[in-house]
Design goal:
The protein is about 35% helix and about 20% strand. It has one domain: Carbamate kinase (3-Layer(aba) Sandwich), CATH 3.40.1160. The chain is built from eight helices and eleven strands.
């Protein structure tokens, strides 16, 4: 690993919307290529990178449940959507020359490996990007919770939460011009203020295991590399007290 990198191993959480195009297509090839290039750029620092992908660009379990569908059934459909995103990202990464493995929490051996923790760690040690699909494999748990869980299991140094804004704000900055950005937040701050960083289960899991979270804007070119290098962008969630940027 080069001296530039601040972390040895990271877990990058991507929402399903990270793959969506502006024209309504759930998976846009050019957008996927942008995301893949960002990952390859950060990998060039010698950092182990694992990725958890969401599926909201294709299907959301809560949406189906809200329309009267059985919640567990709707969540399983959402897990399948994450596999589609994982395969799209894998294809794009490998066309860029980055060896990649997809591991699914739901067994589908023709398209992905089953999730095996020790095998995932071995892939990372060999320089492969590992993409975790299908969440935790259980309904009622979000892919944010899956990201927290997988980050702990592979002994990641940090969880990188990719978003479309440059950090965590006191309110939606697009709707409230006076919203203030936080530079640092404690886990308790996030839970007490009900800040929409990740769901409460994911935050609590990180808090119990002292895993820091960096919330940052992944739509700005070079930001994944900057975060991996330890530059002060976005919002850090950890044991620190609340500070405004």
């Amino acid at each position: 690993m080069t001296s530039e990198a601040a972390y040895k191993r990271v877990l990058l959480k991507l929402s399903g919307e990270a793959f969506a195009g502006h024209d309504g297509h759930p998976i846009d090839g050019k957008v996927a290529e942008f995301v893949a290039n960002e990952i390859v750029d950060a990998r060039s620092l010698g950092v182990d990178i694992a990725v958890v992908v969401g599926g909201g660009n294709i299907w959301r379990g809560l949406t189906g449940a809200g329309a009267g569908m059985d919640r567990a059934q709707a969540d399983y459909m959402g897990m399948l959507a994450t596999v589609m995103n994982a395969l799209a990202l894998q294809d794009t990464l490998e066309r860029l020359g980055q060896p990649t493995r997809v591991q699914s929490a739901i067994h589908m051996s023709q398209v992905a490996e089953p999730y095996i923790r020790r095998r995932a760690i071995r892939h990372l040690e060999k320089g492969r990007v590992v993409i975790f699909a299908a969440g935790t494999g259980n309904p009622y748990f979000t892919t944010d919770t899956a990201a927290s869980l997988r980050a702990m299991e592979i002994h990641a140094d940090v969880l990188l939460k990719a978003t479309k804004v440059d950090g965590v704000y006191s309110d939606d900055p697009k709707k409230n011009a006076s919203a203030t950005k936080f530079k640092q937040l404690s886990y308790i701050d996030v839970l007490k203020k009900n800040l929409k960083v990740m769901d409460s289960t994911a935050i609590s899991l990180c808090m119990d295991n002292d895993l820091p979270i960096v919330v940052f804007d992944s739509t700005a070119r070079g930001n994944v590399r900057r975060v991996v290098m330890g530059e002060e962008i976005g919002t850090v969630v950890g044991r620190a007290s609340t500070r405004h940027a």
